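Students often ask why we bother encoding 3D structure as a string. The short answer is that it lets us treat folding as translation between two languages. Here is a chain of 146 residues written in the first language.
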Amino acid sequence: MFGILNVYFVTNLLYPGVASVIQSSWPNGWLPVVLITAFNLSDLVGTLATGLPWKMPDNVLLLTGGLRWSLIPLLMMSVLPLHAPLISGEGSPLVCVLILGFTTGYMGSTPMCAAAGKVNLAEREMAGNLMTMMMLLGLTMAPHPL
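And here it is in the second language, the structure alphabet:
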């Protein structure tokens, strides 16, 4: 349950706020549009990957959720300081956003789909309610850092 809270919390810390202020050398400010499109497409791919027969083990899902925290300093270094970011260029933020999107889709959908199968039949409704509550907490708890 806390894994899904973690997924949406980290996602909302970085996207779309931090991703939309990354400086770019592209003309007419197209980088935010590209990053948002990349996130949405990779999120879709991650969500669709939930339907594949192979499933990531629960302990690996939790570990991967913890590793997503490393995306925070990477994207922040692509933004700060505002006029001369520590990581310049468009490649690093694009890769980070693609990873963030895919893991959000996969790690957000997999626990929601698997929760009902992990509990007794009488507890399935409560498990679904708890998973929804954790998802909503993750969505609402993340402050916008910039």
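Translate back mentally: The chain has a mean pLDDT of 86. Keep this in mind for the problem set.
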